[in-house]
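Quick start: what a row looks like.
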Amino acid sequence: MTSAMNTAVKARLKPEYTAYAITLMGVMGVSAIAPALPAIARTFGLTKAQAGALVMAFTLPGIFFSPLTGVMADRFGRRVVASVAILVFGISGFLCSFVNFGEMVALRLVQGSSASSLVALSTTIIGDAYEGISRERIIGYNASVLTTGIAAYQLAGGYLAHLSWKFPFYMFLLAIPVSLFVLISPIPEVKCDQSFSDYTSKLFSSFNRKMLVFFATGMVAYAILYGAFLTYLPFAIYKAGGNSITVGEVQATMSLSTAFFAAKLTKISKKLGNRILSAGFLAYALALSGILASCLAGCELCFFISSVVFGYAQGSVLPTLQHRIVSLTDVEGRAAIMSTYGAVSKLGQTIGPFFFGLFSLDWVYVAGGAIALAVSVLHAVFRVRVEDKLLDVSKKGKRI
């Protein structure tokens, strides 16, 4: 009886549910504790920069550990690697509430290393389980779950941090049941049985011109997001006469807009086809120009319009890149490719604030808009194409 019930439950659990759960763990690491940083700084007598080390310690390992985790997922299976990574992520995060600041930074390094490929693994699982229009639609939903999760964690983290700086770290205990869920979930069992030399040879051959263009495009998109938008938007809003409440509302509007358009990815893709990336970067350029105009005009309301446009860019560009990279990869090396893309994305997140910090505030948005426009033109002129059978979204997709 129990066996029959377990079989019935597993039949109802679709692979995308596992992917969504992994994604929600992947975005918890920064968004859950960011509201607690001022309280942590007060408790330990830190400067803002020192408290910010808790964020850097989490994101930096991803540049180096993401590809390694991806290789492990290809060789040993997605299920066991994701489950163990989530468990280490949760325990190390929870322990941060019991140690001094130096030990906390060390635990965040461990936590960041374990979480470095979670979002990439969730996309990999979707790529393993689905193809065609179904794959594209679910990748869009996954991006929507990601941005919604960030907003929810920020909200919960803010309330918990108001009670105690320790409480947001307790949220990481959610990783324990999620780890168990991933371990028993019905996702495709994919393991590469090739020799390691054959595996690596085939892996390196995957990095063709099309793949490298998509990687470079993703790095630019993340640099714009973390540089021009997340880092310097608060300064633009303050210059226009706004305050921290306005900043939070504008950024929340962008997150909701991203979630909305990511969920509509299939419809957007049907209308725009191979023009979707060009249109998305044009939207980036328009949004950044709108932020500059709002700043110069002192119009707080106008920032919200720009954030909606920016959300469209995010919701169309990022999941499209994931879908195309997944579609270009063989199943045996998919986790490594997606995790390497995750490392490149984190590189963009790291470079963005430093690069745009070289400019004065107004020129941040001039430079950002010019870069986005240039990428839009390049994609419009050259239109990087992949095989029709992989990207023909008018074809009915199916679960593998």
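That is the whole record. DSSP finds 23 helices and two strands in the chain. Residues 132-163 form the longest helix (32 residues).
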